[in-house]
Amino acid sequence: MGTPDFAVPVLNALTKSEHSVVGVFTQPDKKVGRKQIITPPPVKEQALKIGIPVYQPQSFKDGSALEIISSLAPDIIVVAAYGKILPKAVLDYPKYGCICVHASLLPKYRGAAPIQWAVINGETQTGVTIIQMDEGIDTGDIILTEKTPIGINETSAEVFERLSHIGADCALKAVSLIESGKAVKTPQPRGDFGYAKMIDKSICNIDWSKSALEVHNLIRGLQTWPCASTVINGKTVKIHKSVLSNKIGNGAGIIVNNKNTVTVSCGDGKCVDILEIQPEGKKKMDAKSFLSGNRLEIGEKIGE
Predict the structure, then answer these.
(1) Distance (Å, whole) CA 167 – CA 245
(2) Among 147, 148, 159, which residue's Cα sits nearest to residue 119?
(3) pLDDT in tens, 52-88
(4) Pairwise CA distance, residues 285 & 153, whole Å
(5) Are the CB atoms for 288 and 260 separated by under 8 Å?
(6) What value does the mean pLDDT of the chain take?
(7) Which among 73, 100, 91, 90 has a CA at the least distance from the CA of 185?
């Protein structure tokens, strides 16, 4: 059970193993882009290429999904970024239950967007946790964990890609451990460890009064969607790429350099170099190209 690109390597790894994938559950097709073209999820596309039956239930409430599962009679269900909460009847159906490939070091960053929030919050390490699913949200017993560092300039998209492959390896290891009876399941500690809520456009606007590191983390954390943004010359632009600058600041949102890059001062007196910008209605471009068509003076203030 999975939906986005993150889940595709998990599907591929399972299908190439000694195990048999008897069916794939994924979210329904949805309208995408400005033209609202009905588009299948990446997992569905890959499953059909491989020749695995695909099921896209709108809901698990009416019992029809459980009927499909019982007809498939799986020994175990592997879940990776599926996007639906499974009822107890489904969790309990397979001989070995359901396991989840979660892209964080649980118990931190339970929820829908663990990769983005780890980057936004400036974490230097993340990873994949395989859990035995229970009725809570990412609260099940931990079967195994694998860690990986987050580079200072890595975007959430880059971390996402790496974790998808780590997740595939971990899923195979977990299934083998469970099948052989060697899996050690460790209960997660109780308590509130925060929740990685779904990302939306409400957090895109850059607050230049924050520290340079916080601004940089937001920019790389919101890649490739929905992207951090700010206002320049009265128009909203997306900021795709940045690095921390060694230049000295001069007030929140103040331009301190406009030669080949856009250097902006932040609230802590430090600066961020903007490397890639996307004006309204245009494709993203490097800062030099942006500056050739947009006048930005040193000392000018950007942002709302």
Answers:
(1) 34
(2) 159
(3) 999 999 999 999 999 999 999 999 999 999 999 999 9
(4) 18
(5) yes
(6) 96
(7) 100
Check if the beta carbon of residue 79 is closer than 8 Å to that of residue 133: yes
Token pair for 177: 């451990």
End-to-end CA distance of the chain: 42
| The pairing of beta strand 235-245 with beta strand 271-278 | antiparallel
**Amino acid type, 219:** I
* Cβ proximity of 65 and 82 under 8 Å: no
Question: Which tens digit of pLDDT belongs to each residue from 277-290?
Answer: 999 989 999 999 99
Distance CA 245, CA 264 (A): 9
- The amino acid that residue 72 corresponds to is L
pLDDT of residue 32: 86
Give this prediction's pTM.
0.95
What span, in angstroms and rounded, lies between the C-alpha atoms of 246 and 271? 7
30, β-bridge pairs: 39
8 A C-beta contact, residue 137 and residue 110: yes
User: For the chain, what is the radius of gyration of the CA atoms?
Assistant: 22
Q: Give me 255's structure tokens.
A: 């331009």
Return the closest-CA partner of residue 172 out of 46, 50, 13: 13
- Which residue's structure tokens are 């606007």? 205
What distance in Å separates the CA atoms of residue 152 and residue 240, rounded to the nearest whole number?
15
pLDDT value for 195: 93
